Amino acid sequence: MRIGYPCINRTVECKGDRTFRLKSYSESRLVATVTDNLNCLLKMLQFNTAHDILFFRITSDLVPFASHPICQFDWQQAFLNRFQEIGEFTRSHYMRLSMHPDQFTLINSVDERVFETSVRELIYHATTLDSMGLDCSAKIQIHLGGVYGDKRKSMHRFVQRFHHLPERIKGRLVIENDDRNYTLNDCMTVYDAIGIPVVLDVFHHEVNGSGETLSQAFHRFVKTWTEEDGLPIVHYSSQRTGSRRGSHAESIDLRDFHSFLEKTKPFDFDVMLEIKDKEKSAVKAVKTAMHDDRFLRFKTE
DNA sequence: CCCTGTCAAGTCACG
DNA sequence: CGTGACTTGACAGGG
């Protein structure tokens, strides 16, 4: 079991997701920003290993406008050395990286053009992980997408479109149950069609479930992961007390997390904490998991 | 320097 | 049909 958090670390003094306005795009601006972002990414990874945090999501803002037509710059080549250093650091610490394109990436959109821009965006994400020399356990995680008034058809469209994706995207792509539209059961249906691993978001499963208990959900989704996909990925977050159902808590509830660890035995998996205060909660979670065999086994590896 | 409207992209709920 | 939420900060231009 690895424990991780997404994208941002407020303890290190740098920012790894700096961007700029499209209107102020220039090659030199891009180079300067990406240089800073990569430097900061390495700093965050160093922070993580120092705190036994071995799972991390890279921000999609790492290379601003990477998939936009305005960007004609060969950033992959220009930063290849830096990417490889970061990949080497990651591998040598048995760390796992992932990425999560934002809500504009829609494989199943009814609009063909939206699908095409989504493919460009996925190519950017895959290129980033490829450049670091990471194996297929470094996943790109998305949701199934919109419903467009007909869920069954929209799921079918996802399956059809998946077949048209480049292999290097297919090998990294995983789907996650969301809090409104697609449940774990829906993801499993898509898995049955194309064999794509399913990320279980336990919070979304509580808010928008398909009837399974936590244990039943684990039994189902774990089977979608093969050896080369790496350990199954779980997203964990907690409800912000007194706030809208579905909104994320400011900081981790350690009693709930402890109980989550107990309830999910003996399954082994990597857990991404989707909590507002990011690395602070991750540090706490690591302390809580310190006596868990699944976590220890990994730490001493 | 400070303030604040706005920021690449889509979908859905709501009025 | 138009607007805000999703989620949030900070870019960038104007005062």
UniProtKB/TrEMBL annotation:
Keywords associated with the record: DNA damage, DNA excision, DNA repair, Endonuclease, Hydrolase, Nuclease
Species: candidate division TA06 bacterium DG_26
Example GO molecular function: endonuclease activity
InterPro entries, sorted: UvdE (IPR004601), Xyl_isomerase-like_sf (IPR036237)
SUPFAM superfamilies assigned to the protein according to its UniProt record, in alphabetical order: Xylose isomerase-like
Protein name: UV damage repair endonuclease UvdE
Pfam family, one: UvdE
Superkingdom, natural source: Bacteria
Keyword Hydrolase attributed: yes
GO biological process, one term: response to UV
Transmembrane segments: none
